[in-house]
Amino acid sequence: MDPCSLSEGLLVGIGNPLLDISANVGHDLLEKYGLQPNDAIMAEEKHMPLYKELMEKYHAEFIAGGSVQNTLRVAQWILKKPKVCTYFGCVGNDDYARILREKAIADGVNLRYQITNEAPTGTCAVLVTGMKRSLCANLAAAQKFTQDHLAKAECKKSIQAAKFFYSSGFFIAVSPESMLQLAEHAHSNGHMFSINLSAPFVSQFYKDPLEKVLHYCDIIFGNELEVEAFAKAFNITGSLQEIALKMAQIPQTKAKRPRVVVVTQGPDPVILVENGEITLIPVPTLEKEEVVDTNGAGDAFTGGFISQLILGKPYKTCVEGGIYGARHVIQHSGCTFTGESDFKPSS
Predict the structure, then answer these.
(1) What is the CB neighbour count within 10 angstroms for residue 318?
(2) 113-155 pLDDT, tens per residue?
(3) Which of 59, 102, 211, 322 is a Cys-bridge partner for 305, taking CB atoms 3.0 to 4.6 Å apart?
């Protein structure tokens, strides 16, 4: 399918819009705030001084973020047709929201923000230590998303127009009922619903609502750490490949199609489970000096994958699109990209 022939609003994504505050730091700062490299957590009270410290002492950058919003921006960049993707999330009535809005619209995303006066727009501290990044999210306004926003006329219209739906696992900590509503809608209409496990804590602390959504889930994304945490929470044993295979076999409610599982492993091959079979798809290597920032690599992978899914491409091609998106983004600071996408599938 030619991207130019795509309808607007084919994909709806729902998540937590956050402004990333990103800086290169030493391990001492991670230790100070009890953070781990290559982890993602929700901020507690003890983390609140971190954001100011990053801005005052580490020359931090402000980068439009939020996992799902990043994914949709990358998908739009590859598709080159505006407004194929529509995004739901909650922001404050402030300058941070203005920055997020301007960036997302410039990248072609159609926005259906819920706006609250009860909290400022959410932020995410991104602590980069060499090749690793630690994320500490202060959801703030993002936590104020309510299911009734989906019932607004313009939102209902967007939901009815979509044939693909995507959510981060992060969002299950905010409005599991909204995620479940979209999953059930997609399932009952024969559309596709995908979820990203997002971080180990999602499976550890939100197993019950996650399990409900999985009944309607067509595609599960995760990296090796997230999948291992999922396996522990759901009492699944075996190697990473065996776990991925068993994840695909978790029962679905009146399944319309076999579930697909996609596991990324950094520079190691991507594990693709399709129709009960495992395919390992190699990741072309980058030189160490080419890697600028791995923050956003996972979001970019799903963005590249989804761009090809919308086009009706085979799953192997979708994975190649994901690898392309991730490789491009990790050569930049934050989830950003330059120039036009020149993605070309291998077959």
Answers:
(1) 27
(2) 999 999 999 999 999 888 788 999 999 999 999 999 999 999 9
(3) 322
